[in-house]
């Protein structure tokens, strides 16, 4: 496999452009993915931040829900940020009733968990596996991980709450590294995609 993997950014809704740029800076070929045919062409997928209820609805409308679930189930690498973390959760708290998720990480995620106290904030977060000191965590109406199954690794906590996890080839963060100039987490994901290929 080439050392430049092709990584898609789910482009139904959310901050797609920032992820495309961060992935390109981190050494991947990055492109937006909207349709099942486009999903079939990528080695890995980022699910951006945005609004998970809208993303879930649009995934159904665009016929992407089952292809996305199959992608995750096949063990293809996926990285979800914020709303994307919500999308890869097995279960949700404070979700809309008909909100769909893809699964991928055996965890319960609480939507808008930090939001009720503080709509949006930044904090230094130490992330396991990311060398060079803490990353700048940008939290925007961010979820946290309320509980995890035995095969999930916690990579970061903030204020006593889990904010970054990995299970197999699925990575998720409550915060938005694509909004900072620091692309170490994207580089970590690009390496995950290389290793999986
Ligand atoms: N609160 C949003 C949701 O539930 C996520 C916010 C974000 O992605 N910045 O989808």
UniProtKB/TrEMBL annotation:
In terms of Pfam families, this protein maps to: SNO
Which key words tag this protein in UniProt?
Glutamine amidotransferase, Hydrolase, Lyase, Pyridoxal phosphate
Gene3D superfamilies xrefs: 3.40.50.880
Where along the chain is L-glutamine bound? Answer: 50-52, 111, 140-141
Q: Which family does it belong to?
A: Belongs to the glutaminase PdxT/SNO family.
Briefly state the protein's biological role: Catalyzes the hydrolysis of glutamine to glutamate and ammonia as part of the biosynthesis of pyridoxal 5'-phosphate. The resulting ammonia molecule is channeled to the active site of PdxS.
Q: What is this protein called?
A: Pyridoxal 5'-phosphate synthase subunit PdxT
What is the species of this protein? Streptomyces albospinus
Which gene specifies this protein's sequence? pdxT
């Amino acid at each position: 496999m080439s050392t430049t993997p092709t990584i898609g950014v789910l482009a139904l809704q959310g901050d797609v452009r920032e992820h495309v740029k961060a992935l390109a800076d981190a050494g991947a070929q990055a492109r937006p993915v909207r349709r099942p045919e486009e999903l079939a062409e990528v080695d890995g997928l980022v699910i951006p931040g945005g609004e998970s209820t809208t993303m879930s609805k649009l995934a159904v409308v665009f016929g992407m829900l089952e292809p996305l679930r199959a992608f995750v189930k096949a063990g293809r690498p996926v990285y979800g940020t914020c709303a994307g973390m919500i999308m890869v959760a097995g279960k949700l708290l404070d979700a809309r009733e008909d909100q769909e998720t893809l699964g991928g990480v055996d965890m319960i995620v609480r939507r808008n968990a930090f939001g009720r106290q503080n709509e949006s904030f930044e904090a230094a977060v130490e992330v396991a596996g990311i060398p060079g000191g803490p990353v700048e965590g940008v939290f925007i109406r961010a979820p946290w991980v309320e509980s995890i199954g035995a095969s999930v690794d916690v990579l970061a906590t903030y204020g006593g709450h889990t904010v970054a996890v990995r299970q197999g080839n699925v990575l998720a963060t409550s915060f938005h590294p694509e909004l900072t100039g620091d692309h170490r987490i994207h580089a970590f994901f690009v390496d995950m995609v290389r290793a999986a290929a």
